[in-house]
Task: structure prediction
Amino acid sequence: MMQGSFSSELQSKNDSTYFDIRLHIVPIWQNRTDGIWMYVEQAVAKMQDKPYRQRVYKLTETGTGTFESAVFILKSPLRFAGKPELVEKLSPDSLTLKDGCSVILKKSAKKKFNGGTEGSKCPSDLKNASYASSEVFITPKMMVSWDRGFDKNGSQVWGAQKGGYRFIKKRKK
Result:
């Protein structure tokens, strides 16, 4: 359900406080048996050649209906923009784990998962943040992602104010 191309265009048209963002998640290293690996790119729709977030996720089942999505950083990520086949040539040991930033997903209903990061364990220095949090809701047709940064006092310093970005999955042609 996480793999594919997603858009928040509809949300941005209905609420000017949200940007039109494109999210692309493609499988990589499909022969590995230690989890499901995915390359992730997030960019403003008009600047997809310059994504502001590029990550690798490793999805593993940690219990019945519970999954951990570990988050990894790429070195010099812009060289991979729009080119997941280049990431495919890397090995997992060339990535850096974002310790404390894993998203724990739990099955909440048939074909629905929700979850997030745990407390204030995910460090962030973006816009004077001390830590970041992510809340995620996934269905076969949509993904909602609410990423926010907080300062040492727990005040929000970046991210959407009203709720998560609603990414609608694009249909395959």
